[in-house]
Amino acid sequence: MPDLLIELFSEEIPARMQVKAAENLRRLMTDGLVEAGLTYAGAAAFSTPRRLALSIEGLTAQSQPVREERKGPKADAPDQAVAGFLRSTGLTRDQLEVREDKKGAVLFAVIEKPGRMAAEIVAEVLEKTIRDFPWPKSMRWGAGSLRWVRPLHSILCILSDEAGAEVVPLEVDGIVAGAATQGHRFMGPTPFSVRSFEDYETKLKRAHVILRADERADAIWHDATNQAFARGLEVVQDAGLLAEVAGLVEWPVVLLGPIGEAFLGLPPEVLQTSMKEHQKFFSVRNPATDRIEGFVTVANIETADHGATILAGNGKVLSARLSDAKFFWENDLRTVASGGLEGMAEGLANVTFHNKLGSQADRIARIAALAAEIAPMVGADAGEARQAATVAKADLQSEMVGEFPDLQGLMGRYYAKAAGLSDAIAAACQEHYSPLGPTDDVPTAPVSVAVALADKIDTLTGFWAIDEKPTGSKDPFALRRAALGVIRLILESRLRVGLNASSGPFVFATKSITDKGFAEGADTGNLLSFLDDRLKVFLKDQGIPHDVIDACLAMPSNDDLTLLVKRAEALAAFLKTDDGENLLQGFKRANNILTQAEEKDGVEYSYGADPKFAESPEEKALFTALDAANAAIKPAMAAEDFGTAMTAMAGLRAPIDAFFTAVQVNDDNPILRRNRLNLLSRIRIICLDVADLTRLDG
Amino acid sequence: MSTTPRSFQEIILRLQSYWASKGCAILQPYDMEVGAGTFHPATTLRALGSRSWAAAYVQPSRRPTDGRYGENPNRLQHYYQYQVIIKPSPPDLQDLYLGSLAAIGIDASLHDIRFVEDDWESPTLGAWGLGWEVWCDGMEVSQFTYFQQVGGHDCRPVSGELTYGLERLAMYVLGVDHVMDMPFNDPQTPIPLTYGDIFRQTEEEYSRHNFDAATTEALLRHFEDAEAECARLLTVPAEDPKTGKRIIMAHPAYDQCIKASHLFNLLDARGVISVTERQAYIGRVRALAKACADAFVQTEAGGWAA
């Protein structure tokens, strides 16, 4: 059984695309080969900045012959029908067989597909794979029409076994497949031929290319930590950066250098961000001082001067970058020293937030008022929350954030401290943007929570008011994220507030907007159903099904998300129990019988079930059980203790089951029938008081 | 080849002779204010259509918002780009490019030269391409792009475009920390001149002009005039009544587009364009660029055949 080796050699592939591309190559090739009737023992794909490679072991040498029989029209069918059958089978009339079956003479086509050689199939599948390759972005080059991520230079494609290796004959837009490749751009450019995957990997290494991305990453991390350790330092871990850097080099050479003394006073996050974003450097910490004091750069070449020129050049670029950062930092601190964060924020009056919602300053004034409103509900001081919201976005006007937008919030925290503001305000400057996604941390400090909620509620209300709602995949103002943020903030701080209440935050936010003449006549009433939709998505991820949420949304005070979720969690847990599942069936049965009877009779049975008409012990027992459940559920519901209420409800399961087994509801005696329907109605009333069970599936 | 150049102009001269030796027509800078070498019609327009093309040139470029009164070591409102454009892009364009680095004294066996993903897009020109920024020891020294679209037209064949930021590259090669200290001509000559001797004063003058003095009303008016003129030139019928020839005025129209683009940059530097208006202005310039591209492909140089 032969092995297959493929290499697609191109100009530099973006680091972020390499791993996925190798995986796609493996998937498309193996799927295609299997579909064409070949099997294989194993497949592995690899990527470097200039190549994708695929090794398939134990490929069958040829596909099995296939014999297919197809039944056609009757032998005496019109010519047209026969012609169609011939077309679809690719045979001629005299190649068809005539066979007798129950209905008479029928035409049969016997199609023999001989087995095909692996090389032929590989060539076909590889050409298709190259032409249809799913790059996130692809391009044309020169005068050709082939698309690849960057110009494709050569194709290596060989089948090898004990007897030797053979090139698979293949040509794609003038690129003829061969057995040769080349190594490192500078350290191994002489082309060489390979005989097998082992031979390929070995020769590549000799030509200064490490084929495996994880091997390159390991080498980088190993060398970097060793070099740092030798100097008493440690490299700051960054898995994303490590993977990216491993995709930027074929032959990693780790170089460690110092950060100039002049820059060590910068916040560590500034150093890290600047080095990572612009230079792809790792940060190196000195555990003795707990400062970032060095950098690791990964070059792609070994030089006669052991990297001295490269390290000096990188150090120089870094110094230029950090000089900028230091200049911004010092200017910002000067601004804060002379006018506080309020001074820094001044320019926000000239920055348009949205032309229908005013400037950033307008928006901040709204958020500040709302934060003060929310503060008491989350245990924050209203004055402190107002002040925090007023300065929380001041850093948007700082030079540092202008250069490094990712540092927004964090710089606010530093500058708030520099301005002598409280720790709670400084923290709010940073944390009020959170949570940014479903897994991001949710702030817990009361002032941060108040400002974070106010910020998101103003955003949602504002864009709702000017009818810039998300549609389909379009959500340019990230309103879904803001809604999820509101939900998570409310739930995690167990905030009790009726969002729809006339004294609630959304009404307050709407009024703040329209009071200033923006979005006049805006209706933000349906905003809550948007929040409900986001809540469903969020809770579904937490394992609470849609129908459970619907059952709870149908209850009163459904704009109190904390209450809503508490109910939903209890109901979901209840339905997972045996009693819960069976009670639901019992309830549905009671409800169905009752509803049908009510429709038929045109009355509502909701009152007056009397135990004196109860005949059987099962019927009497149900009366007793309902009384007991009622007595337990009422106080539990009043205390919002849904768990206890549902346990009490579960106690109804056995009496209800027994009742239905023993008692015929639609009795001939109209008095008994009415009494029993009214009894069922008690089941309905008690259960519906806990949640709207009619909305549950199953 | 491997000797280190001694001055800014020597680097330019070496690039000129290198690319001349590789078959490029060495053009002169375009005689209008542009933001980048790409705006030169030798790139923007010639990237369109089916005819082969190979050109290289220095292009003085202006970015009014980057003015720093000559004080910042790396930032200038007027600087030079070196531009190479070859259509169709040759298969060995990366090697040709590396050869040009060798020509100006960058030894690839001693430095770390890398091609790092950087896709290029010019919203004002309605143009985009895929390629890299080229790093030398961690510093971006060039932009390398395979043009895919210009003025909304697919590029067929594809042009390969190289753009060198000359000051930055030269500062690195010459080991200079402040652009104004960089020797412009040979420091050994009787009258040695630094970059600062030539440009410090103009950087000051233009910084003041661009940020504070340019009359915004006039700029706005000129922008609208250029916009209108560009559109008007393109609506004139192709048949020239005087000569009887088919003469589409794609280049004169494109001049007006360049003008509008620069006026927009000046207005931006004057701080009179809000964030929302910005997009609208860029869209207006793009519409002009697109109309000029539409016109150019109807001309002989643009591949039109009667």
Description:
The complex is a heterodimer of chains A (698) and B (306). Chain A is α+β, with helices and mostly antiparallel strands and 698 residues long. Chain A has five domains: 3-62 and 117-206; 66-113, no CATH class; 213-331, no CATH class; 346-522, Orthogonal Bundle (Hypothetical protein af1432); 572-695, Isoleucyl-tRNA Synthetase, Domain 1. Chain A has 24 helices and 18 strands. In chain A, a hairpin with a 2-residue loop joins strand 7 and strand 8 (164-167). The longest helix of chain A is centred in the middle third of the chain and has 38 residues, at 308-345. Chain A is flat. The model of chain A has no long low-confidence stretch (mean pLDDT 92). By secondary structure, chain B is of the alpha+beta class. The A-B interface holds A 11-12, 14-16, 49, 137-144, 149-151, 153, 186, 248-249, 279, 297, 299-301, 303-305, 309-310, 312-314, 316-318, 320, 351-352, 355 and B 73-74, 88-91, 94, 108-117, 119, 129-132, 136-139, 146, 148, 156-158, 160, 172, 274-276.
